[in-house]
Design a protein that fits this description.
It is a single chain. By secondary structure, the chain is of the alpha/beta class. Among the domains are: 384-608, Carbamoyltransferase, C-terminal domain (DHBP synthase), CATH 3.90.870.20; 661-951, Vaccinia Virus protein VP39 (Rossmann fold, 3-Layer(aba) Sandwich), CATH 3.40.50. Helices cover 35% and strands 18% of the residues. It contains 32 helices and 32 strands. It has a nine-stranded mixed β-sheet with strand order 13-21-20-14-15-19-16-18-17, with helices on both faces. A seven-stranded mixed β-sheet has the order 28-27-26-29-30-32-31, sandwiched between helices. α26 (735-741) links the parallel β26 and β27. α6 packs across α13, α9 packs across α11 and α11 (278-306) crosses α12 (321-330). The protein is globular, with a radius of gyration of 30 Å. 50% of the residues are buried.
Amino acid sequence: MNSNSDLPAKPSGGASILGISAFYHDSAACLVQGGRVVAAAQEERFSRTKHDSGFPRCAIDYCLRQGGVMVKDLACVAFYEKPFLKFDRLLHSYLACAPAGLKSFLKAMPLWVKDRIWMKAYIASELGYEGTILFPEHHESHAASAFFPSPYPEAAFLTLDGVGEWTTTSFGVGQSNRVEISHELQFPHSLGLLYSAFTYYTGFTVNSGEYKLMGLAPYGEPAYKDLILKELVDLKEDGSFKLNMKYFDYAVGLTMTNAAFDGLFGGPPRKPESRLTRRHMDLARSIQAVTEEIMSRMARHVHKLTGMKRLCLAGGVALNCVANGRVLREGPFEDLWIQPAAGDAGGALGAALVAWHHYLGGLRQADGRNDTQSASLLGPRFTKEEIVRFLKSRHIRFEELGEEELTGQVADLLASEKVVGWFSGRMEFGPRALGARSIIGDARSKKMQAVMNLKIKFRESFRPFAPCVLRERVHEWFGMRPNEDSPYMLLVAPVLDKHRNAHATAEQDRLRQEGDLLKWVNVSRSSVPAITHVDYSARVQTVDERHGRYRKVMEKFYQKTGCPIIVNTSFNLSWEPIVCTPEEAYRTFMQSEMDALVLEDFLLLKAAQPLGFQDRSPAQSAKPDPLSPWADPRSGEPLVVTEQDAVNPASGTRYAVEEGIPRLFLPTDDAELAHADVTEIVKQFYEKTPFPNYENVDNVRALQEKAGRSLYARLLDEQIPYEARVVEIGCGTGQLTNFLSIAHRSVLGVDMCLNSLSLAHKFKTDHGLERASFAQMNLFRPGLKDGFFDYVISNGVLHHTSDTRKAFARISRLARPGGYVVVGLYNRYSRKLHQARRGLYRWTGITGRVLDPHFGRVSAEGKREAWFQDQYCHPHERCHTIGEVMGWLEENNLEFVNSIPKPTGSMVFDSQERLFEKKPPGTRLSRAWNQSRSVLGGYREGGFFIVIARRR
């Protein structure tokens, strides 16, 4: 769907150069034509793998399309570092520390020996390119990305990151079309790696969680600063330093810190997602203070040696906007320009510009005022026709508006404290959303920070949000100069005293002592509380004419409210990359509590999007609602279900609704089935051995992340329409039901075990998942309307009934004509190995990893015991084949659509699989072959298969 409609005019006489960064962090591609950056993008935006470090195939394809060139037209290709020099550093480091680091060595070397050391041949092969391939040094690429797009004819530059080949920090001078590095600091002494060590130690993810550490810092005190400078860092007056490597493991190990580090700071690293304590806040503040001190000393030294008035920054550490703000405020440089894609992604841009200016001798013009980064809006955009085609294909409700009406309505929504997803123009290059792929809100709102963090982004409550401010008003609200440019959200400035809440400081001091982070976050510190951090700072983005329609929204908001500031955060859920396409924007809109979505000229309101069904009627309602799924399990007549009870108006039969769960369970009435009483036996088993918890999935974000790791769950969520009516039969603790309901989708989970349903309902109510519903019932006598649901899902339940065939027939009647039935069963083939293990257990009593490797992969103790009981002590189970289920489809007027494993060809799915598109059913032989291939270990946990069918 990447549009080619806005291709720029090809620069006359301009050579095309492709820049590439890959294989470490945030792979990216950039196309430079005639010295002008015409396209740049990170691979993660296309692959949807956050911080994708693979070869940027998709990003390269986009850049070439945007530039209107083919691979054969390229003047040269530039890779952002020298692989041989990097390999040299790795070998030296391992040899110097041997035999320590053996595990890390064995893990790293195959990757280098296979591909990375032979990068020139690898790139040529991947691209089908026979021309020149250049390899500037890593920090040369950073320096070029800092200076060449800047507005300055000449300037000093300073680059700081983890490590390139050997260099971790460099500085020098850029003049005209040259950058020259004059000084370097080398591995293992690295400010970036020092900061990442504390990122790791405080429980955040290295290479992506550093900004969380920076956001946490203002909540603490620099209690450990002196200890860091005494024990870890030997800091000189000029900003150079050496690290005491006895406290670090990153040189050759698999972790950032070691036991000595733990001893120095009073304990082991924090477990991810565990509670943040005052100690963690103080650690964050201390390393932030040290980082700022080092950068300030370096800046003064660079100014002294170069005599330049302006400074350019790049490298991952340059994303530390708090330190950047201090460097600018304290001087001695008059001006500062920071590459918006300061990390490794920006290395692709820098490499291409090195090739243009150094290799091809291309000239450079700089006017001293305007940079050439084009507001970093260098990614793809989408045409009106593409967006309309998508919206209509999904039957989405939308309104097309002219620019004046659209910007006016969005301003009105913001002023009424609504949250808006904004998708307009070319996607940003770099880690920040800058008004093209943004989520925006009212900065004056006292509730906005909590709403955005917990209901929109599903992330830590302490995280601050950035303000967008009309550039001509920036000095009226923040400690910045009139019209000071900060278009890339890379400078932190204080909110002016006149806008601060005079009572907030005392309240914050009290809460600091109590250590209640959530209450602390919600203190109203200024007249724009949504963007004012705990230390009265804000990460400022100035908005000017380059931002087009986005600026018009802000102008109208200012006219309406007198406030020139709105909240801007990136358009993504916290564990995903920023959205690239309209489809991704719509999915994120539906999976969060955003109120509205703008897709170029189109406005979508969440309230206008249809819901599949209504699970409750008003308290005194006497008539059944046609949108209600409920039916009397005795007669099949419609029920009226309220918060108090469930009533059959025709017969007067009444059922209890307790703790929000309709109690519609009736014993099996089929004499043949009831004779074995399997339903009651299984019910008693699960009531005696319930699944005890959500296995550390204690919030919506964790549930979504867990589901995202399951390809099957992710595909269900992506491909089941949001207005669909969905029922999960045998939902257990309701994780899938709750997950699918997050996306504005009506989902009903039913089970016979009340213990499990109580856990499911508690999670729903604790986290406000209003579109999930739960009920207790017998699948042979469901209290649901036949022919009502679009999707009937039953995973791992029917094989625990007395007659799987009859159970399948009964639940399939719930699907409407054209609706789908998704059923998961134990596989007769792949269950064989498990049955042998089960027999061994009953014969010997052996348990644990020796018996079953999966046993050791279940992390929570209670969950491990429940899983073991379910797999090895269950009183009743049956096994089946895909072919057998296909026979049931014919008996119940269903047609085969798909299966896992597939009936033909490859047995596995990938992220592009269309679950509900009809596939060939294969032959008896092909189905048997694919099922038999899954015998060793089971294709899914315990030996499992899934069949998807459609009612004719």
